[in-house]
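User: Some background: our group keeps a shared notebook of sequences we're curious about, and every so often someone picks one and asks for a predicted structure to add to the entry. Today it's my turn. The entry only has the sequence so far, pasted here. Could you supply the structure so I can complete it?
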Amino acid sequence: MKYTKEYWGDVASCIGNIPEIEKLYNKNLLITGATGMLASPVVDIVSFLNREKNAGIKLIIAGRNRQRTLDRFKGVLKEEEIKFVEFDANYMYKLNVDADYIIHAASNADNGMFLKEPAETLFSNVVGVKSMLDLNVKNKGSRLLYVSSSEVYGELPEKSDYIKETDYGYVDVLSTRSCYPNGKRAAETLCSCYITEYDADVVIARPGYIYGPTIKKSDKRASAAFTFDAAAGRNIVMKSKGEQLRSYCYMLDCATALLTILLEGECGEAYNISNKDAIVSIRDVAEALAKAGGVSVVFENPSDAEKSSYNTMKNSALDASKLEALGWKGMYGLSEGIERTLKYL
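Assistant: Of course. Here's the predicted structure to add to the notebook entry:
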C-alpha cells in the first residue's frame, strides 16, 4: 500500500461522506481486524482526522500481533498513537478496555480456508463477536458495529431486483462451505439476542465485494489474484465464466459506510454496503482490471477443490438504499476504484 499525497487527498475527500463524523471526536474507538482490507482504511481516516482536524480520537487496536500492526501502519501512526490489546477471535476474551465505539471486523474471509479450517471459521465468527458484545455491555453507553457479510442472504431465486436486508435464501446447512455464511448468520442472531437480553447497542454492516489497494498478498480470493496479476503485468486467469452478479465497493467507500453505520445506524438494524455504480459481473471486474493493467483475460478449468470453495450465489447485487438514507453515498465507480487500486497497491 502506497501512502502517497494523492491517496491522502482521497481520504480527505471521502470524509465529507460521513454524516456526523464529529460524534467520534475525543472518543475511544476499538477496532478488531484493523490490519485487514475493510478496517485498515478506517484507521487511515482516523489518523487523518487526528492529524489534520485535531479530532482527539483514541485508537485501540485489538489483534494477535502488535508488531504486525505497527509494521502495517508504519508512517501512518506513531507507536504512541496506538493502544494495542491482545485479541484472537478464536478464543473468548474478557477485555478490560474503555471503549465508546467498537468495530468488530476480524474474520476469516479466505475461501480456501473455508474448506481447510471450516470449524474454526464458523466458531471464530460466533466466539469473536461474543467477546465484543460482552465488552459493549460492560461499557455502558458504548456502541458496537458488527461487520457481517452479504453471504448471509444465501441462494435466492433468480430475480432482477437487488437484494434488500430482509431477503433471505437457501444455505445448505450440511455443506462445509456453509461454515462462513452460517457463522455470520449465527453471529448476527447473537447480536439480536444481546440487544434483547442485555440491552446491548449494536448495528450490523453487510458488505458486498470490497476491493482496493489494502488487499493482502496472502488473500487467496479470485479478485485478489486478478488484482495482483494486473498490477504485475500478468494475464488474468479466470476459472469460471464469471457471470455471477456482484456488488463491488472500493475500500474507502466501504470505510465511510462502516463509520456512517456506526454513528447513524439504528440499533438492531443491518445495512447493505454497495455502490450502485459498481454492480457488475465477476468477468466485468476481471476485464476492467485487465484493461487498466494492459493485460488480457484468459480462461482455465478449475480444480475440484477450487470449485468446491466457490460462493454459489448467482446474484448478490445489493440494494444500499437503506444505507444511503443515512446520508452515505459511494464516491468511486468501478473504473475509478480500479485505477486507484493499481496506483496505490
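Suggested note for the entry: The first strand starts at residue 28 and ends at 32. Residues 5-211+249-276+316-333 form a domain with the Rossmann fold fold (CATH 3.40.50.720).
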